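Tokens as discussed.
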């Protein structure tokens, strides 16, 4: 079990909704906020607390206990003005981790300037990941290094997501060695990753082992 953390999801469109639900299912505390009554009603059973509120009001945010969460995620769709204002409030309130969904490059720049710790741009991020996967296939995908022995890139199987490298016990369970984690968000290659690093859905695992062991792990994906 990963460490239980406290999240606030502000804006429950498709993105916020699925994120809130998955974080809650993963055992975390989730406060969800939206102005839309129907959506709040719908997410109720999948959160610790679901509230109808306008997040652009700083006092409202404070009254919801937003200052006590570890991470806030802001996803207000096309309301760029709202997402900028909410991010500013969260920064002033002193949140350490503020993840915001941007809808344009300019929006992303503004969010970075006012202090969002992570800005995501799902359509762009996904398109780049897909392009990377499609174009790097056959290149690094499978690299034989000795007879019967290879290095393989693999998108993490569902059961790996949210777990730490230590918890996965890849050597004991599958007989493979994790040599790097390619992270897309933020984009970097994490060589010799820390045992405490948590696997994200957007990561690519670089694994080394016998062809047989690699095939086995690939089949679980
Ligand atoms: P996304 O792609 O980010 O999920 P959507 O447009 O599908 O975008 O959803 C955005 C959600 O944000 C809507 O449910 C809307 O009601 C909500 N929202 C917009 N402005 C505010 C606000 N000021 N406070 C709370 N929720 C808001």
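Sequence:
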């Amino acid at each position: 079990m990963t460490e239980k953390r406290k999240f606030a999801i502000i804006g429950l469109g498709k993105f916020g909704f699925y994120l809130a639900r998955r974080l809650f299912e993963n055992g975390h505390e989730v406060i969800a906020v939206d102005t839309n009554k129907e959506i709040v009603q719908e997410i109720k059973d999948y959160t610790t607390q679901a509230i109808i509120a306008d997040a652009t009001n700083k006092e409202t945010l404070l009254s919801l206990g937003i200052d006590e969460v570890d991470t806030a995620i802001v996803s207000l769709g096309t309301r760029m003005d709202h997402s900028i204002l909410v991010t500013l409030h969260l920064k002033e309130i002193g949140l350490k981790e503020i993840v915001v969904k941007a809808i344009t490059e300019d929006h992303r720049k503004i969010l970075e300037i006012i202090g969002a710790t992570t800005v995501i741009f799902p359509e762009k991020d996904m398109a780049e990941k897909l392009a990377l996967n499609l174009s790097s296939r056959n290149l690094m995908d499978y690299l034989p290094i000795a007879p019967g022995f290879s290095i393989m890139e693999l998108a993490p199987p569902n059961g790996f997501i949210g777990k730490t490298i230590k918890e996965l016990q890849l050597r004991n369970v599958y007989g493979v060695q994790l040599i790097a984690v390619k992270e897309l968000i933020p984009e970097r290659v994490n060589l010799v990753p820390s045992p405490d690093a948590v696997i994200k859905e957007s990561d690519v695992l670089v694994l080394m082992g016998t062809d047989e062991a690699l095939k086995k792990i690939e089949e679980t994906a």
